[in-house]
Amino acid sequence: MKTLVRNIAQLGGIQSHNKALRGEAMADFPVLPQAWLVLENGCIHAWGQETDPKGLPQADMVLDAKGATVLPAWCDSHTHLVFAGSRENEMVDKIKGLDYAAIAAKGGGILSTAKAIAQTSENDLYAQAMARIERLVQMGTGAFEIKSGYGLDLENELKMLRVIRRLKESLPIPIRSSFLGAHSYPLAFRQNHEGYLQLIEKEMLPAIVAEGLADYVDVFCETGFFSLAETKRICVAAQEKGLGVKLHANQLSAMGAVELGVALGAISVDHLETMDAASINALANADTIGTLLPGAAFFLRQSQPPARELLQAGAALALASDFNPGSCPTGNMNLVLALACIQAKLLPAEALNAATLNGAFAMGLQKEVGSIAVGKKANLIFTSPIPSLDYLAYAFGDCWVNKVMVNGQFI
Amino acid sequence: MKTLVRNIAQLGGIQSHNKALRGEAMADFPVLPQAWLVLENGCIHAWGQETDPKGLPQADMVLDAKGATVLPAWCDSHTHLVFAGSRENEMVDKIKGLDYAAIAAKGGGILSTAKAIAQTSENDLYAQAMARIERLVQMGTGAFEIKSGYGLDLENELKMLRVIRRLKESLPIPIRSSFLGAHSYPLAFRQNHEGYLQLIEKEMLPAIVAEGLADYVDVFCETGFFSLAETKRICVAAQEKGLGVKLHANQLSAMGAVELGVALGAISVDHLETMDAASINALANADTIGTLLPGAAFFLRQSQPPARELLQAGAALALASDFNPGSCPTGNMNLVLALACIQAKLLPAEALNAATLNGAFAMGLQKEVGSIAVGKKANLIFTSPIPSLDYLAYAFGDCWVNKVMVNGQFI
């Protein structure tokens, strides 16, 4: 069953690569004007130009894209979208001048969401996460990574990861799962880090691996959270059990987290708001992908990562939402794209590559999604008519995604 | 014909005032939980609580709000939404490091849009603006001010203002029109300011007033654009012909524009990114409304206006989009609300008042729209279920507007 999609004003993201795009190459987001696309069995089969004198290919069905721009659906490689509750009260407290410590003293922060998670059933968490994903797929996201990390004990970390597994099983789009038990020390272990590290190593990791619940381990490597040594210990234990590594690195301080991630062979190091020469240099010379989360820096009123310096140094960058109730209460990748350009000064083409193919690489899904390539899933965005691809980042308050295709079917 | 709207989780913005809200009073956005609302002839007639033992009022028709939060539609008191073309190329040039002068030398800036306006027919301008407005009404805006200012000659300023008049006549929502011939000196008059000022005074203003095309005059009072003396001369000439005054003030420099606006009795002074003690003091002690345009400061990577200082001093603030193709290519007031809180540090309640009732005051529409008050138009936002009104600004990447009512009818 072949479907011909014709009358595509611009077909964007036509590319195949064995490694993530990096440095100067990120400024090239290949676009074919006046294009057609053939889909077969939910996958991309062929493409060409309507102006080609050979004419259009044969197909069983023809779809008229009506002048849409078509591009790969967003690959959001960093989310915490399984959560309960909302934390707009903390936003108000911060505007009133309360600092992080005062908000924590009122019961806010990660531990506030952890409390809400503990009080919410697996079924309810699943339903809430599913509703979020359905909204986001309509806004153009076609693959997600989702983290645990609001459980912070065996029972609730497993609950979160089982929710993610159910999402994997029931959704037609690829989902990757990361175990983030090392998101914050729970109150009971604030003075007993060794106790929590042993809980992770001896109880959580074995149970998670036995159930096959995680693709990656992730650690919030930061002053006041998990030290370099603690981070390394957790990552090595997880790697020995076959998990890949992601890190929350250099969000608040340049304390060596990026360098550690690179040394561990992490698939990605995420955040990067606070970089120094050593961390930029480490990332520039590694296969590890640097994942920017401009929505979080925006919402927290932080400086954005030094994206231009990272690209000039030759790093590979991905773009993700960081959707979570504390520091980025949205998963709208269209706005993330705009924030990356307006605040972090990525060129629109760089941001498009970062949010599609490099996002796919940052969760090991580059063979399935992230570009227009033969055999990849037809997870595609169809826009309303727009004058150029740059327009998507420029018209920052609007969602120009008109229709979204998953496995060759409009949803 | 009375319509009862019941099952409203929160009815927000219930208030009547003779003057715009100012200073501390802006932090109170009155909300009634578990409410009902009666509409009559497209206007607000009565409201109350479902828990009231007297029971619900009689009505000819009952609508179930299904737990929506209901609030006055946004009043967007500063837009340039009649335009042609888009300027994403300038966004890319700026990321690449080009400055304002280099972009202007390439034909960019206001004059680029002026060129596009000159090449576009009145009918096409009307159709494009109408499409923008229809999108924005669905996103919750129920009243607009629209400026000319990309014409910069008699023919094209009249063309823009006639487009705005046609929008006024054909739309069911209130529209106010501002003549912004003094937006920039056109190339032909760069060395002959006197010539352009005379063109405005002797040709444009008389023709505009003869056709009744404008409610306000507006001037871009700024170094390199219109000086204090030039601004005053244009405003006085317009006032003598019965127009009200608005100003683009203190966007790039504190050169006295706010003080001039206050002295002229302007209804609003807009932008305010660059304020000093004198301009803050002038605004704090005047009826003139200070209109913040956080989308423009965000897109231009400027500092936001000192909103907290202005409120502490006692000023009245409105919030508007500044929708235009150069410095704010969106009219999404939901995102403007979030930007006002995240970047300019307004409290959500202050931003809600600024975007509704004070927005209405800033275009002289306070008797028609901007709050839940007897006799005002039922131009209302119905949200999806949300936990609180603060949530609207917190969930910054999402549009929680589910349905919009204009004159008592869902559109």
Keywords:
eight-stranded parallel beta sheet; homodimer; TIM Barrel; 15 helices; alpha/beta; Urease, subunit C, domain 1; 411 residues; eight-stranded mixed beta sheet
**Oligomeric state of the chains present here:** homodimer
Per DSSP, the total helix count of chain A is: 15
| First-residue to last-residue Cα separation of chain A | 19 Å
Largest sheet of chain A: 8 strands, mixed
* Unreliable sequence segments of chain A: none
Shape summary of chain A? globular
Q: State the largest interface.
A: A-B, 36 and 36 residues
CATH arch. level architecture of the largest domain in chain A: Alpha-Beta Barrel
CATH topology of the largest domain in chain A: TIM Barrel
**Helix content estimate of chain A:** 25-40%
- DSSP strand tally of chain A: 16
- Taken together, the total number of domains of chain A comes to 2
Kindly estimate the percentage of residues of chain A that lie in beta strands according to DSSP: 15-25%
What is the typical, i.e. mean, pLDDT of chain A?
A: 97
The CATH class designation of the largest domain in chain A is Alpha Beta
CATH homologous group name of the largest domain in chain A: Metal-dependent hydrolases
Q: In angstroms, what is the radius of gyration of chain A?
A: 21 Å
Q: Based on helices, strands and strand pairing, what is the structural class of chain A?
A: alpha/beta
